Amino acid sequence: MSHAISLTVNGEARAVTLDDPRVTLLDLLRERMALPGTKKGCDRGQCGACTVLIDNRRVNACLTLAVTLDGAEVTTIEGLATGDTLHPVQAAFIDHDGFQCGYCTPGQIMSAVGLISEGHAGDDPERIREGMSGNLCRCAAYHGITEAVLDATR
Ligand code: FES
User: Fold this and answer.
1) Distance between CA 154 and CA 139 in Å, rounded?
2) For a Cys staple, 93 with which of 28, 98, 117, 151, CB 3.0–4.6 Å?
3) What CATH number does the domain containing 51 carry?
4) Which residues cross the membrane (predicted)?
5) Which atom of ligand 1 is nearest to the CA of 40?
6) In what order do the strands lie in the sheet with 3-9?
7) ipTM of this model?
8) Residue 6's CB: how many other CB atoms inside 10 A?
């Protein structure tokens, strides 16, 4: 049995028919919507590489079934910049070298955008580290990441 859903992805209305209700949002974005910026790391909710915003809240796309998203508004890393102008969080990650290999960076940035919009970041590095703790960086660029989020909250 197929399922039809309508959702908004990066401001664009999308209608999707799902033949398999087990399809995750991560696979929907990467394989059917040509949005590979959202990364697949663990595919089991442990690394945060797949973080996106659903209705402005942070979620792991690998743990979210696409079939549950009828009417939802999804924002991915591809939807952050405005034309050639980076989102302030993207610019802050560049300014503070908040990455090394870059694989986790889309998830880190989406998580930071969510954290800041939730109003829980403040200017306390410890709170930022705790708020970003669901996003792992195998290169351990954590100092630059924290500095970038701090800068973006100012
Ligand atoms: Fe989703 Fe790791 S790929 S948390």
Assistant:
1) 26
2) 98
3) 3.10.20.30
4) none
5) 3
6) 12-18, 3-9, 73-75, 51-54, 57-60
7) 0.98
8) 12
- Which residue has the least CA distance to atom 4 on ligand 1? 45
User: Phi, psi at residue 107, to the nearest 5°?
Assistant: -65, -40
Q: Which of 83, 80, 94 is nearest to 145 (CA)?
A: 94
CA of 50 to the centre of ligand 1 (A): 5
Whether residue 115 is found in the same domain as residue 68:
no
- Report the separation in Å between the CA atom of 49 and the middle of ligand 1, taken as the mean of its atom positions: 5
pLDDT single digits (tens) 19-70 = 999 999 999 999 999 999 999 999 999 999 999 999 999 999 999 999 999 9
Ligand 1: nearest atom to the Cα of 46: 4
In ligand 1, the atom with minimum distance to the C-alpha of 62 is 1
Cβ atoms 113, 89 nearer than 8 A: yes
Q: Which of 67, 150, 142 is nearest to 115 (CA)?
A: 150
Q: Residue 119 is part of a domain; what is its CATH number?
A: 1.10.150.120
Enter the pTM of the model: 0.96
